[in-house]
Amino acid sequence: MRKKVIAGNWKMNMLPNEAIQFIEEFSPLVKESNNEIILCMPYTDLFYGLLTAQGTNIKIGAQNMHFEDTGAYTGEISGKMLKSIGVEYVIIGHSERRQYFNETDETVNKKIKKAFENELRPIVCVGETLEQREEGKTEEIITKQTELALQGLTNEQVENTIIAYEPIWAIGTGKTATSDDANNSIKAIRSKISENYGQNVAQRVIIQYGGSVKGANARELFEMSDIDGGLVGGASLKPEEFAKIVNYNK
Ligand code: PGA
Q: Which of 38, 213, 221 for mutating ligand 1's site (highest number of atoms within 8 Å of CB)?
């Protein structure tokens, strides 16, 4: 049985004092949960987040990293730096980074490899645009993105990658893929992984759904056969709402 992994993606929100307050309010609400809980926060919150989450069942992640350890890359943060302060997870290739910051399948692949070198667990985002969906290309796009993202990884690394299937048209729009649609897309990703890395790896890899997940729809989505939890944006900014999502099975 795959564990459910539920990650919040705060995006460019939350000051350190707000992050601390969030964790203080949120952690008692989810302390009984048997799901894996991750908060992916801005770089400036990470240190405070790590300290405040100590002794709780909440793990801390970043939202991006560079694909080199050090060097002349003004303004960038490396996986090695994240690891050095105790970060355990990192989102790679979110559609907003692909769209606004020229993230490509190639940089995504490099970053994932570097994340593993630094013992960070990557949460890798894939997803189709509305146009691609309307052209009937969803499966082709998301399986290709997955294939390129994972290229050159060992079976063990693939097994430890968390994939987040996030249809771009569902992000921040209030439109959610139907649970059947999301499940079918995730099945397609899993079967591509099975083709390339074998059935065992495919059965173990965590594949989340993301895109307007909220307390009211989490249960229906997460109870589907292939949806192993979620990557949650807007609804992860409020402790009570995010706790409802994490506690969907309570
Ligand atoms: P949303 O964002 O939950 O606000 O739609 C999800 C994401 O971008 O990861």
A: 213
